[in-house]
Write a structure and sequence with these properties.
Blueprint lengths: L3 H13 L4 H13 L9 H4 L2 E3 L3 H17 L7 H13 L3 E2 L1 H6 L3 H16 L1
Antiparallel strand pairs: 1-2
Helix pairs in contact: 2-4, 2-5, 4-5, 5-7
Amino acid sequence: MFDAESLMVAQRLVRRLPVGEAVLERILDLVRSARPGAPEAHPAVAGAVSWGPGPRAAQALTLVTRARAALNGRFAPTLDDVEAMAAPVLRHRMALSFAARARGDSIEGVIARLLDDRMQAAA
């Protein structure tokens, strides 16, 4: 159980955890690929997403990967943390187009394709 002071200490600790270059690049690549109209946009985004994540999504994903690492006893996030936390962070920062909803597409499905393709490309 956290009291107010313990919570603030934990928040400061999480914000101070280092984030490696590979993890930061994966976060930025993933967020950019989810933006329709961006040069880096994933093909699945082009016809399905009406608006995508902005810079604050990258900040949120960075922070939550740090928190996940800390909760798992690690001092820095990994690519696995990015993969695990991407869907929850991106889910409410993207909106499907009307046509995509009519086809039965889902934000979860678009994010899954982004993650699958990005993780395979990095492997």
